[in-house]
Write a structure and sequence with these properties.
Elements (H helix, E strand, L loop, with lengths): L7 H24 L6 E3 L2 E6 L2 H13 L4 E2 L3 E2 L4 E6 L3 E3 L1 H17 L3 E6 L17 H13 L3 H14 L4 H13 L3 H14 L4 H13 L3 H14 L4 H13 L3 H13 L5 H8 L1 H14 L1
Antiparallel strand pairs: 1-6, 2-5, 2-7, 3-5, 4-5
Helix pairs in contact: 1-3, 3-5, 4-5, 5-6, 6-7, 7-8, 8-9, 9-10, 10-11, 11-12
Length: about 290
């Protein structure tokens, strides 16, 4: 059912403004004397046109995020729900992605993120332990958050893992996935790039980067990445299927159909739909051409 309060057009139009707002909130925190990566608990407010939408959102944030959610209150023209986050280390990017996750989660429940903020005492700041032996702990916390669809905290924990060990491509790759899911494909691309620099044969990262490029309309570059994957893993059905999609976007129907058929032969049964929709005439023409020559 389409949103009636936080519509898709509103979501799209205000996404950039939400990013600017997060930067502004962070700058105010810096001006107050708070040091980067000091810990904070942020309060937040959502609004919607029905109590039920906010309650459903609140249940998710309470159960999956472990946030403290307060009762829904009624105002003249809307309903409001406030809550408090769990504690997390704050820098500009952590705050941005924490806020973007809430913005996106609100949209899923037809609710609007109406504001957020945190108090802080410059004379009493606490920080995470970033010792080298804590890498696995933060990576595991990130994966657990991601499994709960808590993308904001997944981003934050992956970023902390990267701070501790920036040479592990898995954290860069994983954070890129979170960025992609939060609609920041350019920033995701940079993380995929870094993962691939660290591990040139990281085929999952290559496939995801290629998909990222395809979404951006960079079809030729996407094909190059898929071709690299196929060179590394000749049995990778997904790479053939996706490369077929990129070729199709470039109007190379023959090349697309060849890749989709290879993907199907390698076990990608889902390729049949694309073949049925786009390839029958291609291969019929090839057969007719064969008979005409003879």
């Amino acid at each position: 059912m389409a949103n009636t309060f936080h519509t898709q057009s509103d979501f799209n139009a205000n996404f950039g403004k939400e990013m600017v707002s997060a930067t502004s909130v962070y700058e105010q925190r810096q001006k107050s004397g708070m040091i980067e990566y000091s810990l904070a608990i942020y309060d937040f407010v959502f609004i919607s046109d029905t109590e039920q939408k906010l309650k459903l959102l609140g249940e998710l944030l309470s159960q999956n995020y472990k946030y403290n959610i307060k009762s829904v209150t009624r105002h003249e023209e809307y309903y409001e729900m406030a809550g408090d986050s769990t504690e997390f280390p704050v820098d500009e990017h952590n705050l941005l992605y924490w806020a973007l996750d809430l913005y996106c989660k609100g949209y899923e429940f037809d609710c609007k993120l109406d504001g957020y903020g945190a108090m802080g005492d410059p004379n009493d700041q606490a920080f995470l332990n970033l010792d080298s032996d804590r890498y696995n702990e933060y990576f595991d916390l990130a994966m657990a958050a991601y499994d709960k669809r808590n993308l904001g905290m997944a981003f934050i924990h992956f970023s902390t893992a990267i701070k501790i060990n920036p040479e592990d491509p898995n954290a860069w790759y994983s954070r890129a996935i979170v960025k992609d899911e939060l609609h920041t494909w350019k920033s995701a691309r940079r993380d995929y790039d870094r993962a691939i620099v660290l591990a040139p044969d990281f085929t999952d990262a290559l496939v995801n980067r290629a998909a990222n490029k395809d979404e951006a309309g960079e079809y030729n570059d996407a094909i190059k990445d898929y071709t690299t994957v196929i060179g590394l893993e000749p049995q990778n059905a997904m790479a053939y299927f996706n490369r077929g999609n990129s070729k199709f976007n470039l109007k190379d129907k023959k090349g697309a159909c060849e890749d989709w058929h290879t993907a199907k032969d390698l076990g990608a049964s889902y390729a049949q739909e694309r073949i049925d929709q786009n390839c029958n005439n291609v291969f019929k023409a090839k057969i007719l051409g064969f008979y005409n020559k003879n």
